[in-house]
């Protein structure tokens, strides 16, 4: 039923044998013409909308990335420049490499800190514990806030003189640290805020995963004389493999999409450049450089594609085999 | 055993209480700041004991930032998008999970993958597309899809349907085929089987998705920022930016505004917690 369990498991409890499969196909072809039309509309209308607004633009980005279009004039006026945008981005665009580097730091941070913290909290909470529900609720409460709002709220903490952090550290009046203004540290300050929100999500995913671990496995391990550490690393953790994949993908996607938080803080400048910000700057910024912005988007797409494909393969492999 | 005080248990509780307090600290701090007056914090700094507590900042943020207007904007986008996305994706999910045809898996992969794309990959051509799509003036005073609330609804529906189709089709696969067949024997057509047999059985999944999708669509920042150009039409999360711009120095007001914007999602979270968690773990593909 859930993706955490077996997302690709076919209907029913038993795997469909070739005969039942054929039976289903025959039923489908036996649909009355009216039913076929209805089914076609039910599938067609949403699919067209999804294709037109998600996939056509996504492919459009790839196409436009080979052009130098400023958005003026029709499609006939588009000048095709081959890979020039990419070459220029890699060699001459000063904001690109910092942004890419920030994106990678972002990914690495989210993959390590919230994942470890979330797993630890999930393991601690996965038992009969008084107030367990209250702890859980408190820990994933930040999840409901948007990243933009997280940006607003954490500014109250990071402000040089009025912020909580410098006051607690006692540096507010003497030598305030400009957490969000100093390009050497602001990325990490923002990452703490982003990790704050992400930890609860990871914890929740692992909690759901831990619930589906068969207690008999742990009992068997205990009977064999395994201690808590051994039981966790040798028995529980390997069973959590599907959850690990989900956490990995969710985190990567979240990391590459990150935009709102740096945008509300300083529009993604001065140490907070991200690929997503560079793309957006090319649409709503002063310059309308469609080809250029698209090429940046394609770089972002290529980074995420590896993870998306791996994930889809994992989820749909079983289904395609049947 | 249950009442025996064990040192390990105590240590665990102490650790968890401290972690929870740390987690809640930013929100509690915002609440504290929002309840103090500007004069108080200007005189004594934010890190001090409040002279008095008041709700004035909330009323000020409410009126000065014109919050009711932006709440309404958000509602006009969120509600239609929520209803449409659940309706359309349940139809697709029904088709792919209950019938066999040639593009079954391909369609499902298409929807699922679409939701995993970074929005920025879509946004530039989408902007052009919206600019080129004419609309009658009663639907959009800009005359095109760009800068219209309909445009925002459409992209939310298109983008989020990827996630909902994936979750709902997994859910529908667990419903026995015999149920649909029984209805068919009784003469129910495809739509009737969907509407009167399958959909009611999907209520738990729909409730979970509704909670989650409400939060996501409500919290949207990027689509609105790019696709809406008139400040007056902005949904509330994006409009909060104005509050910060206008009243940059007044942290108390920004804190109150932030909490007011967070309020609907917090209410949903506390009242529908079970559905919310259910939704998050149902799909687990969402970034």
From TrEMBL, chain A:
Keywords: Cell membrane, Membrane, Transmembrane, Transmembrane helix, Transport. Its main location: membrane. PROSITE patterns: ABC_TM1. It is a multi-pass membrane protein. One of its GO terms (biological process) is transmembrane transport. Residues 1-27 are annotated as: Disordered. Residues 100-313 form the ABC transmembrane type-1 domain. One of its GO terms (cellular component) is plasma membrane. The chain crosses the membrane at residues 37-58, 104-125, 137-157, 185-208, 290-313. It is found in: Cell membrane. Belongs to the binding-protein-dependent transport system permease family. This is Carbohydrate ABC transporter membrane protein 1 (CUT1 family). It comes from Saccharothrix saharensis.
Automatic annotation (TrEMBL), chain B:
It is a multi-pass membrane protein. Its main location: membrane. CDD domains: TM_PBP2. InterPro entries: MetI-like, MetI-like_sf. Residues 71-272 form the ABC transmembrane type-1 domain. It holds the Pfam family BPD_transp_1. One of its GO terms (cellular component) is plasma membrane. SUPFAM superfamilies: MetI-like. Belongs to the binding-protein-dependent transport system permease family. This is Carbohydrate ABC transporter membrane protein 2 (CUT1 family). It comes from Saccharothrix saharensis.
């Amino acid at each position: 039923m859930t993706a955490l369990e077996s997302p690709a498991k076919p209907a029913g409890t038993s795997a469909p044998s070739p005969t039942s499969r054929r039976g289903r196909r025959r039923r489908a072809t036996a649909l009355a013409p009216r039913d076929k039309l209805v089914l076609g509309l039910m599938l067609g209308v949403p699919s067209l909308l999804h294709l037109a607004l998600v996939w056509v633009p996504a492919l459009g980005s790839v196409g436009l990335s080979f052009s130098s279009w400023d958005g003026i004039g029709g499609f006939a006026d588009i000048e095709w420049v081959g890979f020039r945008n990419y070459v220029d981005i890699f060699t001459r665009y000063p904001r690109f490499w910092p942004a890419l580097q920030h994106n990678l730091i972002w990914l690495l941070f989210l993959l390590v800190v919230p994942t470890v913290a979330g797993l630890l909290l999930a393991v601690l909470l996965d038992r009969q514990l008084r107030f367990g529900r209250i702890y859980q609720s408190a820990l994933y409460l930040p999840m409901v806030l948007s990243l933009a709002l997280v940006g607003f709220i954490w500014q109250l903490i990071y402000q040089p003189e009025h912020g909580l952090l410098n006051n607690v550290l006692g540096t507010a009046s003497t030598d305030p640290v400009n957490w969000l203004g100093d390009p050497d540290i602001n990325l990490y300050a923002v990452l703490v805020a982003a990790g704050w929100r992400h930890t609860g999500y990871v914890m929740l995913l692992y909690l759901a995963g831990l619930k589906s671990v068969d207690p008999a496995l742990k009992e068997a391990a205990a009977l064999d004389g395994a201690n808590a550490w051994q039981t966790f690393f040798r028995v529980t953790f390997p069973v959590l493999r599907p959850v690990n994949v989900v956490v990995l993908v969710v985190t990567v996607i979240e990391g590459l999409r990150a935009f709102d938080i740096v945008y509300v803080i300083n529009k993604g400048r001065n140490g907070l450049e991200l690929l997503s910000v560079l793309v957006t700057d090319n649409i709503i910024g002063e310059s309308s450089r469609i080809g250029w912005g698209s090429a940046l988007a394609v770089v972002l797409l290529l980074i995420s594609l590896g993870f998306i494909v791996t994930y889809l393969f994992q989820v749909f492999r079983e289904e395609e085999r049947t | 055993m249950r009442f025996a005080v064990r040192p390990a248990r105590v240590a665990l509780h102490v650790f968890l209480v401290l972690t929870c307090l740390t987690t809640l600290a930013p929100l509690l701090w915002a609440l504290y700041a929002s309840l103090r007056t500007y004069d108080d914090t200007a005189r004594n700094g934010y890190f001090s004991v409040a002279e008095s507590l008041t709700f004035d900042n909330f009323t000020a943020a409410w009126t000065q930032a014109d919050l009711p207007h932006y709440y309404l904007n958000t509602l006009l986008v969120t509600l239609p998008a929520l209803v449409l996305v659940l309706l359309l994706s349940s139809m697709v999910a029904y088709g792919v999970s209950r019938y066999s045809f040639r593009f079954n898996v391909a369609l499902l992969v298409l929807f699922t993958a679409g939701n995993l794309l970074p929005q920025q990959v879509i946004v530039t051509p989408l902007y052009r597309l919206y600019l080129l799509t004419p609309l009658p003036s009663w639907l959009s005073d800009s005359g095109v899809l760009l800068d219209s609330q309909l445009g925002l609804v459409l992209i939310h529906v298109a983008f989020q349907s990827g996630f909902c189709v994936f979750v709902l089709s997994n859910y529908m696969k667990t419903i026995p085929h015999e149920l649909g067949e029984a209805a068919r024997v009784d003469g129910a057509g495809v739509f009737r089987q969907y509407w009167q047999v399958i959909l009611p059985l999907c209520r738990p999944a729909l409730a979970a998705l509704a909670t989650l999708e409400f939060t996501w669509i409500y919290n949207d920042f990027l689509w609105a920022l790019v696709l809406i150009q008139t400040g007056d039409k902005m949904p509330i999360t994006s409009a909060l930016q104005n509050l910060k711009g206008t009243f940059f120095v007044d942290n108390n007001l920004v804190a109150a505004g932030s909490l007011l914007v967070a309020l609907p999602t917090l209410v949903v979270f506390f009242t529908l917690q079970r559905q919310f968690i259910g939704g998050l773990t149902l799909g687990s593909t969402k970034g």
